[in-house]
Amino acid sequence: MSFFLADKVAPYAWFPEGASSFAPQVDFLFTVILWICIVFFVPIVIAMGYFMWVYRERPGYRGSPEALHNTAIEITWTVVPTIVVVWVFWEGAMGYLDMARIPKGTVDVNVTAKKWQWAFKYENGGEHEVIPVENSSVTELPLLVLPVDRDIKIIMRSDDVLHSFYIPAFRAKRDVVPGRYNYMWFHTTKEGLYDLFCTEYCGDNHSQMNAKVKVVSQEEYKKALEKAIQEPEDPLERGKLLYKRQGCSTCHNAGAEGASGPGPSYNGSWGKPVQLESGSEVAFDENYIRESILNPQAKARKGYGKASPMNSYAGKLKDDQIDALITFIKSLENANSATKK
Predict the structure, then answer these.
(1) What is the pTM of this model?
(2) What pLDDT, on the 0 to 100 scale, is given for residue 337?
(3) CA torsion, points 241, 245, 248, 253, in degrees to nearest 10?
């Protein structure tokens, strides 16, 4: 089947291998609809070509002026497509209702979408880890760990604009609408590492708003939960972890890591004067960093006034977490400044 598609890059030349209970029904219905289209389309096009040739206008040929009527054919081309359409609707409706009815006894995960990062929080309050990736525009992605053979409920909200949560291998997708909670569920069936995408355009770095989903055994999941609630005691290491976990790396460069925009780099900034959009100047110190975290638009840096606005972290970070981030940024005092793109 991949022969018919333009994208032949594995694993998306066709569908990625299914890893949830939704996959068989979705794949079956998609394949049936495809073959229905082929079975109708090919003969109709061949017949059109044949009739165009046989009944073409030419010297000496005179067509019949009478309107032909065939009751059997007319009933057939009305009834058969109607039956097909009703069956497709029924199968699609049953699949949709199955996805909409969330069962009891689920493993719940809270998902927060924000430009341009996914954040995952588990039932025990633990937060996601970050893993390195290859062959990507980003070097690291957040990792969502889930147990195999369990019903998973995803509780989603957006901190800013409309996003969309999509895991192709699970055949599961749902919009994440700001100002409300959105829900989806699926039953994991196979261990493995899978892609997670935002499929609603959400701004400058939309294409980088990806994540990974790792389905593991129940024992491995318990270990992941224990690890998720731990943060390093060393302030510098803790700040580095928060820089990745809180999504700072999606907009700000730090050392050799993170994006080169749309936000300013942390490299070589500590202790230096900062020019603001208002024309004034402030020192890049503890007070400036703290205010920029809690009220990002209060003192926007010059040249970044038209960049996508940063969300406030007021109420989301504790004082000791902010202190850890300050320690991490301070450690970049002698790092080379990244050029804004």
Answers:
(1) 0.70
(2) 56
(3) 50
